[in-house]
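Risk mitigation, structural track. In case the binding assays with iron/sulfur cluster fail to produce interpretable data, a predicted complex structure has been prepared as a fallback.
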Amino acid sequence: LPMNTSSLQLPASHEVPSFTDGFAAGEALGRSLALPLLQASGAQGSDGGPIDPHRAAGDRQVAAGGKLNAEELAKREKNGLDLWDEVLAHAREARFPTGTDVFLFKFQGLFFVAPAEQSFMCRLRFAGGITNTAQCRGVADLAERVGAGHVDVTTRANLQIRGIAPAHTADVLMGLVELGIINRGAGADNIRNITASPTAGIDPEEIIDTRPLARQMHHYILNHREMYGLPRKFNIAFDGGGRVSTLEDTNDIGFVAVRHEGKVGFRLQLGGITGHKDFARDTGVLLTPDQCVPVAEAIVRVFIEHGNRTDRRKARLKYLLDDWGLEKYLAETEKRLPFALARVPLDTCVSRTAAVDRIGHVGVHRQKQAGLSYIGIVLPVGRMSVTQLRQLSAIADRFGSGTIRLTVWQNLLISDIADRDIAEVKRQIEAMGLHWSATNVRAGLVACTGAAGCKYAAAHTKRHAMQIADHLDTCLQLDHPINIHLTGCHHSCAQHYVGDIGLIGTRVGEESVEGYHIHVGGGYGAQQAIGRELFRDVKAEDAPGVIERMLRGYLEHRRDEEECFHDFVRRHDNEQLIQWFTSTTANA
Ligand code: SF4
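Fallback model:
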């Protein structure tokens, strides 16, 4: 597979921060602290070699009468990080993996997505969701040569290539490494893409630039084998207190920048998993920036040792927290640290001074650097063709700094555009068939992979999301942005519980046609709320009309033009909303 070697030239971007950038801003809250090293576990086996903490944890659960689940047994049989020879052999013979190898291949970022498709999806990895035009061109080349010709932005500010035939998996992995993209552990029971504020380093309101922390965490994982093969997947996010949220409260660990007594620190939140209707909870702990990564390491190590390896449904961090309580978990974490965790009342910390801008990831916004702006581009349900990705890269090179920032809203930002060039950038974006307008319903549309590429899906979420957007475009003009999230199953990859309107796929009626349960009132950050179910068993074909009636009912009955959909549905009970939403006539 010939690679375009010109793709390998890195741009001369001023965007890439050094390892220690941003730390100075947050000098120790209590005391000056060099990057603390974790106390080594020091555990040795009888042969003097290191003990595998995962195997030891599984052994303890078996000794206590438990039965390891199938994935745990597979991980004990072979390490998913060591499958290179098998990946090569499968590629040589154009074979798909079978049995638990399907699960283990995800350690290599390779998802065999049958029965949805007879092909692989490959998930990548970018620290804080930040990439550059050289990498994007290389990814476009790969997606064109051996993929389906498009690239998807995920809800973890990441990229995915779909439609990869089994003969090409090794080519893709080699191509990614040659581009500087190491995607090990992008799936399965691993720490997923580290997310951070997408406007880190350019946001006029931010408390701290989170890019160095995201990079440090990213590389810590890549360089520690024991950080792979956890009881289940694990999410970590860094929020710098700027205008654009990274949905940190939906992560297992959320670090939230604050000011305390004139210094910068991070509140530690734990246990977010909105698919299980829980947000991350504030732990009462305030960290210096330098402490965040070591504390994350220690938290993960506690999870490795004590997370449930018998029941997959209870294997996420939330359930260990529910079982133990917060204080016990923090005490176990502290045992693995060379410093004490500072407990500081939440109300003594000052968080972001400006409210989160719900549309800060779309449209043109000024940067902290004088004369420069970033533009957030709407990618309907996160998908762009390889041609569009190349065109966006060309814009970022010509008018920006060669940096492309992916967001958890399934879109991307191009930063560092001079004011004089904004009009031309907008024109070029429109010319390629994309948008930058926040009131376009596509700006708030989020959809998981769905039945086109995921075996768990009850519905074709991306297709239905586009049908909803197409329908609303023809009949409604919204004056407030609205988030509509479609997720295909209870795993809730598109986080339907935090959308203004959230749809979860289901099968409807005796014919078992595709459909959705529809929720309203979800939110995050200051508007944190789990959406509540309003309609059950709506056929997918009826969903556009139902959502149109909901939005018409809102426009008709809202208090005034200032009231957004979220506030409106929070102010009324289901009975009232259903009456209004079913008495309004839709165009459909
Ligand atoms: Fe698949 Fe379910 Fe995730 Fe959608 S939410 S991508 S259907 S696992």
